[in-house]
Specification:
The protein is mainly α. The protein has seven helices and three strands; from the N terminus they run H-H-H-H-E-E-E-H-H-H.
């Protein structure tokens, strides 16, 4: 079945400190990832598997680019799904886990901001079952530095397209605006799912 773009509702265009224009352009990029994922899947269904080669082959190129396209699609779905104006504060089990793993919500946000300033493309908050804790994970791209058992509950896009129209090169100010729009109820629900 082909992938279809998700609808994040009209509220996604009314964020505090992230303009409607930025979100509209960003959503176009997300839709392009969905479309490219479908295109690559179609091409993989028809590729000549006998030509596979680690130096170069159509099989290799399509498989590598599929990881990039699907990683972009899924990371943007997490990103957009937990943004809303006046997002609130962490609560319940999620807040307790954040305090256990980072000492306080403030320390968690400082760590996530530092992760976002350090990554070239993404920072995710993940539930890391092997460690039994939350970790802020850096990715230079949506298909780099991943681990099989990480379960992302929050995605921070730090590619320039996410903030350049509003903040030019001031990534830190964009991250501060991002924090104001986090839907902690949704993130908490995603945390609960990740723990199961």
């Amino acid at each position: 079945m082909p992938f279809t773009p998700k609808d994040f509702g009209p509220g996604i265009l009314e964020l505090d400190g992230i303009s409607k224009k930025t979100v509209e352009e960003h959503l176009k990029l997300y839709v392009a990832y969905v479309n490219k994922s479908n295109e690559i899947m179609d091409k993989l269904a028809k590729v000549d598997l006998s030509t596979a080669n680690q130096v170069f082959s159509d099989v290799r190129a399509l498989k590598v680019e599929l990881s990039f396209a699907i990683g972009g699609m899924q990371s943007h779905e997490i990103y957009f799904s937990h943004l809303k104006r006046g997002g609130g504060e962490p609560s319940g089990e999620l807040k307790r886990q954040i305090e256990k793993d980072f000492g306080s919500v403030e320390n968690f946000l400082k760590d996530l901001k530092a992760s976002g300033l350090s990554g070239r493309g993404w920072a995710w908050t993940v539930w890391f079952p092997a460690a039994g804790r939350l970790v802020n994970w850096v990715g230079d791209s949506q298909n780099t530095y991943l681990s099989w058992d990480l379960k992302p509950i929050l995605a921070l896009d730090v590619y320039e397209h996410a903030y350049f129209l509003d903040y030019t090169v001031n990534r830190g100010a964009y991250i501060d605006a991002f924090f104001k729009n986090l839907d902690w109820a949704r993130i908490g629900a995603d945390y609960e799912k990740a723990r199961k």
